[in-house]
Write a structure and sequence with these properties.
The chain has 101 residues and is an alpha+beta fold. 35% of the residues lie in helices and 19% in strands.
């Protein structure tokens, strides 16, 4: 992503933020999110975000995104989700996720 004001704001936010495209590929990741998951930001760019999700979330994530894009109806994407995430060292880590368009 080449929007420099956006990236400056993203880097200054104290919460972890990851943006994805319609295919769930990571477009941007701020330093906080990278540290939370144990990756360098460059390692996550272009990867599918399900890399950071445990099962069963990883298997159904693409369906949630597809349904939202095709219908515009928010289901899981409309609320905060509390779950565990997969860190680089494969240690489950608690997290909450909120989606926005």
């Amino acid at each position: 992503m080449t929007n420099f004001p956006f990236l400056a704001i993203l880097d200054a936010i104290t919460d972890g933020v990851i943006t994805i495209d319609e295919s769930s590929n990571v477009l941007s990741v701020n330093p906080v999110a990278a540290r939370m998951f144990g990756y360098a930001p460059e390692e996550l760019l272009g990867q599918n975000v399900k890399l950071l999700m445990p099962e069963p979330q990883a298997s159904v994530h693409a369906n949630y995104v597809h349904d939202y894009i095709s219908s515009g109806v928010k289901h899981v994407l409309a609320s905060a989700v509390k779950s565990t995430a997969c860190t680089r060292v494969a240690r489950p880590s608690p997290w909450s996720c909120r989606s926005a368009r």
